[in-house]
Amino acid sequence: MSADPTAKNAKQTPLHDVHQDLGANLVDFAGYLMPLRYKSETAEHEAVRTGAGLFDLSHMGEIFLSGPGAGAALDFALVGNLSPMPVGKARYTMICAPDGGVLDDLIVYRLENETWMVVANAANAAVVRDALTDRVAGFEAEVEDRSDAYALIALQGPRAQQILEGFTDAPVAGLKYYAILAGRVAGLDALIARTGYTGEDGFEVFVAASDAVALWRALAGVEGVVPAGLAARDSLRLEAGMPLYGNELTAETSPFEAGLGRVVKLDKAVDFVGKAALAEQAKTPPGRRLVGLVARGRRAPRKGYQVVTSGGTPCGVVTSGAPSPTLGKPIAMAYLDSGVEGTDLAVDVRGRPEPVDVVDLPFYKRS
Amino acid sequence: MSVPEQLRYSEEHEWVSGLGGEDGIVTVGITAHAADALGEIVYIELQPSEGDTVEAGEPCGEVESTKSVSDLYSPVSGEITAINSAVVDEPKVINDDPYGEGWIFKVRISEEPGDLLDSVAYDKLIEES
Fold first, then answer.
1. Least Cα separation, residue A35 to chain B (angstroms)
2. Which helix H or strand E contains A321, and what residues bound it?
3. Are A52 and A201 in contact (CB under 8 A)?
4. CB-CB: which of A25, A41, A299 is closest to B66?
5. Which tens digit of pLDDT belongs to each residue from A198-238?
6. Which of A270, A60, A232 is nearest to A156 (CA)?
7. CATH of A5-59+149-239, one of 3.40.710.10, 3.30.1360.120, 3.30.479.30, 3.20.20.140
8. ipTM greater than 0.90, yes or no?
9. Minimal CA separation from A41 to chain B, in Å
């Protein structure tokens, strides 16, 4: 297949040659040439659910904040209450615009007392870096974008811990979900986080870009570890009910309608960007709510398709949708207008209504 | 990805085999290029049944993958004589063997197809796409 014409200006990750050697289908994603799949995305998906999958996430942004005022700066810049978080912990949070719209969803790690790492989506990394740089101006803190210096490799799946233990003396068995520690993996200096975007147990390992190939080759050399691309990553996170920026979250989305009001810490002691707008939003029920849909038929709802009532009236919009490998039927996330009953709904799939049932998220929860 | 020389192709990435045969029945599938671009195929819907007629260039079904969906066009006009129930039951066969076990339907053609591409022209088409 010929290369995507938009990919000519795309950046390559440090693992580009590895992906090519594996015969990956490479696509431009957020300005990076990324593996969409290696062989079968369904097999890659199932490997993560039942064994272990290996992902190159080096396109993600790693933005460091350091200095005595870094914690306070984050409390002002983000919607979360970060400064009380202990060293070695991580938190899911967001950066919002002054009007309350979501600029990006983030994981923030406290690496040392005065050193924090903010991991941003690739497409938003520059926006996040620039917003953080602006917002920390009044604090004793410095922002440094180290995205190009770091590679990020995720090892995800029920076998992830056992596999990682084969390459490190770091106490990863005791590392809790949403925690991070520094250690050596396969002889390479690394930051080992127990985080992920798949709904499985797993680790995200940050190493110097120059060490990426060595780390990948070590982990990929283990029997049963399957390289997995963005297609599998997307179906895994959808089953896990995790929002994707650009789909469920946008600058026009409020955290409350996305069901993420819990990450907005309106009661923290300090002011933060977006607080006034978000406090106003919190007073009234949101105009729409994010729900899960399971299709009764086999035609999948897709992003942008309309949700309709039994009478054919539009009452919502699909934000993500795909056939679920685990459930064996199509699933979707959608915004339903407020006041719409979650019964007798359909999705307009290219002109034909396909009946769907509204379900609680997530679609899949590991046992 | 090689393009088999003995087949003919539509610009919508279907292939046709058996043109010029005595019974006038041809076999239709989608190309390896199309299957690869779609990703893993999970559902195929054919609107016509056996005995129905199809028109060249008209949509006659959908091919749905994990990541996307695409219309299926009949590259020839005529009467459907067979539908491959094995690929309807397990569409992934199309990814695994697009030119063999992954055939989709057979048509008794009612007129000689006009503007199908040979393998060289189809290869050029996908190179430029």
1. 13
2. strand A314-323
3. no
4. A41
5. 999 999 999 999 999 999 999 999 999 999 999 999 999 99
6. A232
7. 3.30.1360.120
8. no
9. 7
